[in-house]
Amino acid sequence: MRRALASLFGGAVGKDTVSRVWRKVKSDWDAWNARSLGEEPIVRLILDGTVVRVRLDRKATSISLLVVLGVREDGQKVLLAIKSMGGESSEAWRTVLDDLINRGLRRPEFLIVDGAPGLDKAIAAVWDGVPVQRCTVHKHRNLLAHAPERLHDEVTADYTDMIYAATPQEIEARRKAFIRKWRLKHRAVAESLEEAGDRLFTFARLPPSQWRSARTTNAIERLHEEFKRRIKTQTVLPPADTALLASGQINMRKVNGWQTHARHEAHRSAN
Fold first, then answer.
1. Nearest-CA neighbor of 60 among 52, 50, 68?
2. Left if phi > 0, otherwise alpha if psi is -120 to 50, otherwise beta: which for 86?
3. Of the spans 13-27, 61-75, 241-255, which averages the highest pLDDT?
4. Whether the predicted model's global pTM rises above the 0.70 cut
5. CA-to-CA distance for 171 and 199, rounded, in angstroms?
């Protein structure tokens, strides 16, 4: 804090100044964490975790931050929660989701997740029936982890052709072809794709203009990257709370295809 404030004030600052600023920032952070979400017109949630290095009891350690990003009806992304829960278990995620619900967050229309089993279990407990999209980037990494390096380019080419096909029918045809081919060529790759099931292709239910933003958790990945860029000048952060506070004041643009949100939700309601 002293180093950050010194650059702001153009010189050394005393402990009293540091303490006053920290109390004010911490107070604002606590208020942000408790704010009502009842008026937020959220239609989509993106959920993922990240790991950062912090100093606890004078020792460097890694902590998991659970992040929830909301997408409003007008396509604007907004950070809803960033919590240090000691891990990414179903209990940790359930605590985060229950807090959002208790603060008034309405039932979302669409969820994008990284595929972690703890998160899937927590979602099923609170929002069973909401369409869930498994991140296609995370699954691509899983596929490569199940194949020898000599096959990586071929796996990537087949996977990209499937995920970025132009219509749901083409996606399904290439999905079947992918599984047939890789069951014979390297079975572990086919089994990894099958593990994701239909959730890997939930995006295809949406208008095509939304596919790009609905396939992945990239919006949170970019948030993570920006967060880590801002703290990389320090080997580790001071207390864990500082890791949370450092995420503030990051601007996010609207998602692609947001103009069709209202039309899609009206179609869902009619059915």
1. 52
2. left
3. 61-75
4. yes
5. 13
